[in-house]
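Query structure, 250 tokens:
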């Protein structure tokens, strides 16, 4: 029976649950007056950047941290490197009346100095910084779990730019990918961002439905950082663009 119940968790049954009102979305796409980055919008809400090429990130910096999880999904664990309070917790910044910016380093930060330096090198304001630890899954499970992030609940557009998410993949597994959709139930709007080791990608994750896919068999680790749209982040993105080869002279 447990196997049957799991097999019923697919995008088709999920759509039926939404249409019938049995299940309701916790978030909806919305327009706001926040500053949004033109390049990101022009590319459909995401950019695949070049791979991180800084100092090697030791396995100990992400495998040995203090992890916690949500009661609704024990297949994925998170190690908060920052939080709104500085504690090892997953409560959203909005619970403290704060935007997802100005994250406070937790005790985990002392154990991952290379990662901390990478986050600081971006030069933009950041909020939650979390290590994701994910068991292998199937594409069916990934599509069942497509969701929007709650990045801007307490974010004042008069003071701050729109908060987006930055991914840094840490696992050496070519199956790892971020599945994104403009429309949650329209597979024609689906794209796949391949996430080999050290791949960097930036996603407007409150605009694009998304979920992680990882065939495995090993555990997947990735760093996810909330960052503010604005000139500082745009400068960093420009420095991380994939180089276009120069055409050979005729």
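Result returned for the query:
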């Amino acid at each position: 029976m447990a196997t049957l119940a799991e097999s019923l968790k697919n995008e088709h049954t999920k759509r039926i649950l939404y249409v019938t009102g049995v299940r309701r979305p916790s978030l909806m796409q919305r327009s706001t007056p926040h500053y949004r980055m033109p390049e990101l919008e022009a590319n459909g809400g995401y950019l695949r950047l070049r791979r991180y090429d800084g100092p090697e990130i030791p396995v100990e910096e992400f495998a040995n941290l203090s992890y916690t999880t949500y009661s609704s999904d024990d297949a994925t664990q998170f190690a908060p490197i920052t939080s709104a309070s500085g504690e090892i917790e997953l409560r959203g910044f909005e619970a403290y009346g704060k935007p997802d910016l100005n994250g406070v380093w937790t005790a985990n930060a002392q154990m991952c100095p290379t990662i901390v330096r990478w986050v600081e090198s971006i030069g933009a304001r950041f909020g939650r910084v979390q290590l994701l630890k994910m068991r292998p899954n199937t594409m069916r499970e990934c599509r069942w779990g497509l969701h929007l992030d709650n990045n801007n609940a307490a974010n004042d557009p008069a003071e701050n730019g729109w908060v987006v998410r930055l991914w840094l993949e840490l696992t050496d597994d070519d199956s790892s990918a971020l599945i994104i959709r403009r429309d949650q139930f329209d597979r024609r709007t689906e794209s796949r961002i391949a996430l080999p080791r050290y791949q960097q990608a930036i996603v407007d994750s409150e605009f694009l439905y998304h979920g992680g896919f990882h065939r495995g068999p090993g555990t997947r680790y990735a760093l996810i950082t909330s960052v503010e749209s604005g000139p500082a982040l745009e400068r960093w993105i420009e420095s991380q663009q994939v180089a276009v080869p120069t055409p050979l002279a005729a």
